[in-house]
Fold this protein.
Amino acid sequence: MIEIGKKYRLKKLKGWFEKDSEEFTVLGFGEPNIVGCVAPDGERYVFDKNFLIDADKPDEIYADIQITKG
């Protein structure tokens, strides 16, 4: 369960190298699956909550989407 005020990392995208050690603090919820977050440097982001690694499901580290390079 994603909770306000807690820190979460982003899930990985298969086939893409990305910085995955940054933790985002959840500030609030929007639409049913949207969360507003802030990075340690103060930058604000909006994510689909399915892209955050849920502490209740720590083994689910990959996002359920595929991106192809064109």
